[in-house]
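Async update (no meeting this week)

Hi team, since we skipped the sync, here's where things stand on the single-chain job. The sequence we agreed to prioritize is pasted below, unchanged from the tracker. I ran it this morning and attached the output directly underneath so nobody has to dig for it. Comments welcome in thread, and please keep replies under the output.
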Amino acid sequence: MQIQRFLSLNEAQLLGCASAFLDALDSELRSALGYLRRLEDTMKGRAFGFEMQMDKHRYGALIVLERWAEFATSFAATASVGDYQAMLTDARARVNGAVKLLETVNRTIDAAEVYSADIVEACAMAFHAVETTFQEEREAVQRVQALEAAIPEDYRQYRSVFAGDLAVR
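Output:
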């Protein structure tokens, strides 16, 4: 990952990366759910294009989570982020919980013969639970984004670099 070329992080830089992470995760989960909703009440194999797109996004969410954990692990010891240190030190545990939930979702989807309304709603609830797992990150990013014009350049730069890292498949 390109972000690892930097030696350390300050608060603004961490929050820029957290912003990119949350946007990428939310995008993958929303897209997966959108395709799943289109597949509702459809037998497996009947809408191959939608199924492939759903798979791309549900597995894409797992990639985003793993990259966040890798990022946090690489900076946890050297970052100077004050009150936000828990974002780095707790990241692996949060990611592991989110991954377990998504793996359960994936097994449920894979085992089904039909994309039933019950499966779609269960997935929607699980995706929401994954999003709320990172509530601390979300609230911190929202505080910075509320500043609008006063957002530090470090925030923007690191957000851009990490967003690029997350986009690479």
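Quick observations from my side:
The chain has one domain: 10-167.
The helical segments are 11-39, 48-75, 85-89, 91-111, 117-133, 135-145, 153-167.
Reply here if anything looks off.
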